[in-house]
Design brief:
The complex is a heterotrimer of chains A (288), B (811) and C (166). With 811 residues, chain B is an alpha+beta fold. Chain B has 19 helices and 38 strands. In chain B, 29% of the residues lie in helices and 25% in strands. Chain C folds into two domains: 76 residues, Beta-grasp domain (Ubiquitin-like (UB roll)); 69 residues, DNA polymerase, domain 1. Classes of the chains: A alpha+beta (288), B alpha+beta (811), C alpha+beta (166). Chains A and C meet through α2 and α6 of A and β4 of C.
């Protein structure tokens, strides 16, 4: 398997990268970690004429706390997410998810931004970002703008990102102290995309659920934010009836493809099971 | 310390120095492999070497209307593009298969499976070759295809093989339909039917051993280099049977065999994938002959999984008849075998269904009948023995599932039913109802040791409790206990029933002792990771008393190694290992004469002592093998030819019959269908054990492949004949995380006819492992009335079982 | 297409080359640098046979363009033996514990284990299994690979390693 030919660019600043993309037009692709794009190029499902490698742009890396948010640079790798003590302290679900992505080698090179932005419904981070209510900072020829994660995904490999725009950072509101979270992923083996996966973040007070958010991975053309399902939990003690209702509501919004991971009905049911198990684990971790 | 202790100690020290049979000798191969200095085919770089790549069919069944290579040829760096039109004048557009069929090298009028080879682009490097494959324009007219083998012989089925449409007698007798390949039968049908008609209890189950692929980590590849001046061809390739490849290349190319040098360098795993001859090999050869420069061909993984050599795809209607006390009286099996588009099974020529007739297993079944129908479909061809002797995995799966089905019907414990029907130790050599003579075995002892070690009784008690807890809704986990007691048939084989293209399935060893007492030995087999360089040396070390470290083993170069049939079907130890021992004994016999001359005694006055001949009663008078070697070149006895070497071509008098008792404990999450193997215990009896470390490694590897096959690995096709999941994303190869921990154990029942009593072990764990996993899964659901659950047992399929049983309502 | 000039360090040696941008790092190493230890097993980034160490990370060199390695420091299997030419602790461990059979996955497996032990000198069995889960082996069933890495860890740490009896 051999990729087609292309010209290679390694800009040093975001402005240069944006400028290059503008100049090179539709036949240019952005290269981050490469673990989604290069396989597509090797099978010739993708044949960009120009590759703009973002790895030389130092500004795109790093994890920082800014007020009530955590800001993660797009070129921060999965490995760096897992290693970040700051992230572990404030939003542990991110590293928990990273550890379930691909394999060790790929996590060294695979970037947070690539996982978030390339629109592959199999990617894990998008559902987590929707669950957390993150927003994406993008730079383009017309300047910078922010897009809510929950508005970003429009179809398989189809997002709100316009051609020529680059995701630069992700801003994530830090969930309330004492929140409980979990990412449950069913997969056939290490390195696989999810058969179905669920991200859950909840807060509890006096045994009552005071907030809940649920994201679903790889059970539709896009990641899903199961807001109706989550709403059914708020005010409950996460008793069986409430959880059953939320699971049913989550299953209802799925629309998975049948593939080698299983037929659609199985993947829908697994989305429900993952929600149920993520809720159990999040509840056990929540304080209050 | 008394004298005897001293003598014993001295002998023990000398024995240990030899690193001979029975010790855990570290592998010679690892010195180079751990440093990245192995030499695999794709490592080869020759001056002027070109690179070939295939244009492949997107259709499963289509007529080729036209092929236009002009755009590809115009690409700078492209040297040639071969199509069937180029090969036809040379008679090379088809090649013979080992099964007596022919197989297209490049498709001429039709393509018969997706990814079939249509054109071969030769370019300056692999990047340009890959670019050029996209520039070959092929016009197809899609035709209706056959994916389900049960539809192959319907009256209105599309005819797949128009090239042999009128040839209604195939290599194995009459064909019933243009899509029929053969019908093969063995056993006493009348007597079997009579027992079934009157039996207390019968069971009948369709057992599917699904299509999969051996997928070694290194794909198939070759480099051909034709010297136009000398008229000589050198062919490096991933060949498990390099000598057979040389003969086949000679037969199809017309080049004299002595002008063909076939070399199999280090091979990155084979598992049956690298036995056959493939279009890529032929095209690299033709390319080099036509262009006069070396041509390399390397498969990518997608090509490997979808074109070269599938395994299994046996649909086995399996029946047992028994008394109500559980004594099995008869077995009846019909197999529908899906062979794909060409019959390219790699079996001994007289055995179109391999050794499927070992399907009576480890049991004393008085009468049996087996019938196999092979059919064509629009899938890749192959039918190789994936880490097993020919169709033995299928046979063992059939009997080991069937006895479990019978046990359930009888309400008997599955272990007890097996023990009741085992062939007894005193019955060996045992004549089976379907024609084999089992050389040796002690099944009861092995089974008892296994059951005691695993704690079988306690496991059943635990399972009974868990089942009650499940019924009460206290757990969502099902516990399954899998058993498999397999008997393999390996070491093909005796000339009376085993040949490949008319060449009897012997194997060979040539041993030369150098004057200084070091050794080179060459065999007709070819290691693909089994460690032959280590273990053959151990056999020689023990036989002739020269340290294994002073013995170099060489395989794979057909110019220097004696002719052999290669490594597959666990035949290296049973056949070439025997040849090695016999050749070593010839040397030892000559050495004894030389020693007698040196010590001025009669040969009969000498006795062998680890590494030397000594005079009986005078242990201080001796000559070591090293001293004898020098004398053989320096001062041989009068009238004796100098030198010390021997060759043996060993024709085995019988196959060998390794066996084993395997147990698996599995916990299945009914809500997701995810199965976890809690324990797996494998007791193997492979007769004499040459290197316990390597045996254990072979068992670990075979079990892992069995685990993969049973639990998810498959080559699937959709209704249009599109191959699904031909990459390591979907094709289930477990990582270290999914793979269970393996417990190994053994008994030793030496083969009575093998010179050192060894039987072969590399494939036992795969053969025995597959039904053990499947039985564990089936056992987990059995108390809920699930009926037989087909493989592969991946999570979604097990979830569907639960769904059908109504287990999810309360989740 | 314009060729790119790259400069990198391979096994401690400075290397300069002109490469087509699409040249995969694995092909650059194997065909231009004659370092054939790393192998291609799957072409899609799943098997890890092509693993090399790049700037203290385990990297799949068939999922990396050579141009991406510009300025990097790479270690391949050819560069892991001890300075005096003897086998490194990991190489020795794989041999002593029978952690390989056909040898095709071995260079990638050893390079991956090397980085794992750099980051976690005393891994548990579970950590080893997860740590090498980007590397497929078709021959060994991993049990002895785990032991090989434990052997090497013990040797590096100067702690005793006891081989489990069969």
């Amino acid at each position: 398997m051999i990729p087609g030919t292309f010209d290679y660019y390694r800009p040093q600043t975001v402005d240069d990268a944006v400028g290059l993309l503008s100049k090179l037009g539709e036949e240019a692709s952005v290269l981050a970690g490469g673990h989604s794009l290069i396989p597509l190029m090797k099978t010739r499902f993708a044949s960009p004429h120009h590759l703009v490698d973002l790895s030389g742009i130092g500004d795109l890396k790093g994890i920082s706390v800014e007020g009530d948010d955590i800001v993660i640079g797009a070129m921060t790798t999965q490995f760096e997410l897992i290693a970040s003590e700051e992230l572990e302290r404030h939003i542990p679900i991110i590293a928990e998810t990273s550890r379930l992505i691909a394999d060790p080698q790929i996590r060294y090179k695979g970037t947070f931004g690539g996982n978030v932005a390339n629109g592959d419904p199999g990617n894990d981070m998008p559902a987590v970002m929707m669950c957390l209510g993150a927003s994406y900072s993008v730079s383009g020829p017309d300047g910078n703008r922010d897009i809510a994660a929950r508005d970003f995904y429009q179809g398989a490999y189809f997002t709100a990102l316009e051609h020529g725009e680059i995701l630069t950072a992700v801003r994530i509101p830090i969930p309330a102290p004492g929140h409980g979270s979990a990412y449950e992923k069913l997969k056939r083996k290490v390195g696989d995309y999810a058969t179905a996966a669920a991200a859950v973040v909840i807060t509890m007070a006096g045994g009552t659920c005071t907030s809940a958010s649920i994201g679903l991975t790889n059970v539709s053309e896009t990641p899903l934010w199961a807001s109706d399902a989550a709403a059914l939990l708020v005010g409950s003690s996460l008793d069986k009836a409430s959880v059953d209702a939320a699971v049913a509501a989550a299953e209802a919004i799925t629309n998975p493809a049948s593939d080698m991971r299983g037929p659609a009905e199985y993947r829908t049911k697994m989305a429900g099971i993952m929600v149920r198990r993520a809720l159990e684990r999040a509840k056990s971790r929540a304080k209050g | 310390m008394n004298d005897q202790t001293k003598i014993d100690q001295d002998r023990a020290e000398r024995t240990e120095k030899l690193q001979g049979m029975g010790c855990k000798r570290k592998r010679v191969e690892d010195i180079r492999f751990t440093q990245g200095k192995g030499s695999y085919v794709d490592d080869l770089k020759l001056p002027g070497m070109l690179f070939g790549d295939f244009v492949r069919s997107p259709h499963a069944h289509a007529r080729i209307k036209s092929i236009d290579t002009s755009r590809a040829k115009a690409l700078p760096g492209v040297i040639a593009v071969l199509t069937a039109a180029d090969l036809k004048p040379l008679g090379l557009h088809y090649m013979p298969t080992l099964a007596g069929d022919v197989q297209a090298v490049l498709a001429e009028e039709k393509v018969l499976f997706q990814n079939q080879e249509v054109a071969f682009v030769i370019a300056e490097d692999r990047y340009i070759a890959s670019d050029a494959t996209e520039l070959v324009d092929v016009e197809y007219e899609a035709l209706p295809c056959i994916v389900d083998p049960f539809k192959s012989m319907l009256p209105d089925a599309p005819i797949l093989r128009e090239d042999i449409q009128d040839k209604m007698t195939g290599a194995h007798g009459p064909r019933k339909h243009p899509n029929h390949i053969f019908e093969w039968m063995i056993g006493d049908k009348e007597a079997t039917d009579a027992v079934f008609a009157n039996a207390d209890v019968t069971i009948k189950e369709m057992l599917v051993d699904h299509r999969t692929h051996p997928s070694p980590l290194e794909t198939c590849q070759s480099v051909a280099s034709f010297d136009k001046v000398k008229g000589e061809l050198t062919l490096w390739g991933t060949f498990q049977a390099p000598h057979v490849i040389r003969t086949v290349v000679s037969l199809i190319s017309g080049l004299p065999e002595h002008k063909i040098h076939v070399i199999a360098p280090d091979i990155g795993g084979g598992f049956g994938n690298k036995v056959g001859a493939y279009a890529g090999y032929v095209c690299s050869v033709v390319g080099s002959i036509v262009l006069g420069v070396p041509v390399k061909w390397v498969e990518d993984r997608m090509e490997n999984l979808s074109t070269t050599s599938f395994a299994r795809d046996y649909h086995m209607t399996t029946e047992l008849a028994a008394t109500k006390e559980g004594k099995i009286q008869a077995m009846r099996v019909h197999v529908l075998a899906d062979h794909g588009a060409f019959d390219a099974c790699a079996d001994p020529s007289k055995w179109p269904a391999g050794f499927m007739n070992i399907c009576t297993g480890s049991y004393d079944i008085p009468v049996a009948h087996l019938a196999v129908d092979g059919v064509y479909t629009n899938k890749a061809s192959g039918g190789v023995a994936y880490r097993c002797s020919f169709r033995v995995t299928e046979a063992v799966f059939a009997i080991e599932r069937a006895v479990e089905v019978l046990a359930q019907k009888l309400g008997m414990d599955a272990a007890e039913l097996r023990i009741k029907n085992f062939i007894k130790a005193e019955q060996f050599p045992y004549q089976s109802a379907l024609g084999w003579e089992y050389d040796s075995g002690d099944y009861h002892t092995a089974m008892k040791k296994a059951m005691d070690t695993i704690g079988y009784k306690e496991l059943r008690e635990e399972q009974a409790k868990k089942r009650e807890a499940f019924k009460r809704g206290e757990t969502r986990e099902l516990m399954g206990i899998g058993i498999s007691f397999f008997t393999e048939i390996v070491g093909a084989g005796p000339a009376k029933n085993c040949d490949i293209l008319g060449i009897a399935m012997f194997d060979s060893a040539e041993i030369r002792i150098h004057p200084t007492g070091s050794v080179i030995a060459r065999m007709g087999t070819k290691s693909q990771g089994q460690g032959h360089e280590t273990t053959y040396a151990q056999i020689i070390a023990t036989e002739i008393g020269i340290p294994a470290d002073d013995i170099m083993i060489e395989e794979g170069n057909t110019d220097t190694a004696p002719y052999g049939l290669g490594t597959y079907g666990s035949r290296s130890t049973p056949v070439a290992g025997a040849a090695t021992a016999v050749a070593a004994r010839k040397i030892k016999a000559k050495a004894q004469m030389i020693a007698a001359h040196m010590l001025e005694v009669h040969e009969g006055d000498l006795e062998w002592d680890v590494d030397r001949f000594r005079v009986k009663g005078l242990p201080e008078k001796f000559k070591t093998m090293k001293e004898i070697a020098w004398a053989a070149y320096n001062s041989p006895p009068p009238n004796m030819e100098p030198g010390l070497e021997a060759v043996n071509y060993y024709e085995p008098p019988n196959m060998t019959y390794p066996f084993g008792a395997y147990f698996c404990v599995m916990d299945i999450d009914v809500d997701t269908g995810v199965a976890k193997t809690r324990r797996f215990y494998a007791l193997d009896d492979c007769g004499t054990r040459i290197n316990p470390m390597i045996i254990e490694g072979q068992v670990h590897g075979g079990l892992t492949e069995a685990f993969a096959c049973a639990m998810g690995q498959e080559i699937r096709y959709d209704e249009q004949g599109n191959v699904m999941g031909a990459s390591f994303m979907d094709f289930f190869l477990p990582t270290a995380v999914e793979t269970p921990n393996w417990e190994t154990d053994h008994t030793v029942t030496p083969s009575p006819h093998h010179p050192i009593g060894a039987k072969g072990v590399g494939e036992s764990p795969h053969v025995g492992g597959v039904p053990c996993f499947s039985n564990a899964v089936n056992d987990a659901y059995a108390f809920l009335g699930a009926g037989h659950i087909q493989m592969p047992h991946d999570a979604w399929r097990l979830w569907k079982v639960g769904e059908k049983l109504g287990l999810h309502a309360s989740a | 297409m314009t060729k790119s000039h790259i400069e990198l360090t391979i096994n401690g040696k400075k290397v300069e080359a002109l490469v087509e941008p699409r040249t995969l790092l694995i092909h650059f190493l194997r065909e231009q640098q004659n370092l054939t230890g790393a192998h291609i097993g799957c072409d899609t980034g799943h098997c890890g046979a092509c693993t090399v160490d790049m700037d203290d990370m385990s990297v799949k060199s068939c999922m990396t363009f050579a141009v991406q390695a510009n300025g990097a420091s790479i270690t391949t299997i050819e560069g892991v033996a001890n300075a005096d030419g003897t086998l490194s602790a990991l190489q020795e461990g794989f041999r002593m514990m029978h952690g390989l059979q056909c040898g095709f996955c071995t260079p990638g497996m050893i390079l991956r284990a090397h980085r794992l032990l750099q980051e976690n000198p005393t891994p548990t069995e579970d950590e080893i299994r997860h740590g090498i889960s980007g590397n497929l082996c078709r021959c060994t069933g991993y049990v002895n690979i785990v032991k090989s890495i434990q052997y090497a860890a013990a040797k590096i740490n100067g702690t005793p390693f006891q081989e489990a009896a069969e």
